[in-house]
Specification:
single chain; 206 residues
Length: 206
């Protein structure tokens, strides 16, 4: 082997050694990213594309839209107010305070973390409802719904299974409708439970 050929071979070997770690790291990083978001994305796609008869879609869309800005829970609070002339107004104010405290905290987390909504590149994943302009993580529907369920349980405990059932369905309707990842809903649920629990502790001292 001539000196020039030996030098070329050594340079190729050196270049390969320099690129190998980067290539491995890049491949590993991509794999890690896919593994990290894989289950979340698969659950999203499953809920968005499976079990979508028109009647069920109509019910879920109605419930999802009703949860915008906590309007559904405002309606519940108004009904409690109308049903109880003495303590109804107090209960209504308590409920609103807990729900909107959860919303404010949730919005702050959204702004800080800045996760975008699920990708709409696949026409099959087009959302069933209007795509909100806000960030995705955590879900405000979930935060408000579970905070409301906590407050309502404290105010009218016999119906607590109904409150939490509605909160669960309303929260997961957002994944079914294609505007949230499952992890958004889980995080929003945690925010709602924490804020709802804190709200009940504070209100119990009033």
């Amino acid at each position: 082997m001539t000196p020039d050929a030996a030098g070329q071979q050594q340079r190729r070997s050196t270049d390969g050694d320099e690129k190998a770690p980067g290539a491995i790291a890049g491949s590993g990083g991509g794999s890690a990213r896919r593994k990290g978001g894989g289950l979340n994305e698969r659950l999203f796609v499953t809920l968005r594309t499976r079990a979508h008869p028109r009647l069920l879609e109509a019910v879920v869309i109605s419930l999802s839209v009703a949860g915008n800005w906590g309007l559904f829970w405002i309606g519940i609070g108004a009904a409690l107010w109308a049903a109880d002339a003495t303590g109804g107004l107090r209960d209504f104010v308590y409920l609103l305070a807990v729900v909107y405290a959860a919303l404010v905290v949730n919005i702050i987390i959204k702004v800080v973390l800045g996760r975008e909504r699920p990708s709409l590149s696949d026409p099959a994943l087009e959302p069933l409802v209007g795509k909100p302009s806000s960030k995705s993580f955590p879900s405000s529907h979930a935060a408000m719904s579970f905070a409301a369920a906590c407050a309502l349980t404290w105010l009218h405990s016999p119906l607590w299974p109904l409150y939490f059932a509605v909160a669960f369905i309303m929260s997961w309707s957002r994944v079914y409708a294609g505007v949230h990842y499952p992890s958004d809903v889980l995080a929003g649920t945690a925010v709602g439970l924490v804020m709802g629990g804190l709200g009940v502790l504070l209100l119990s001292t009033v």
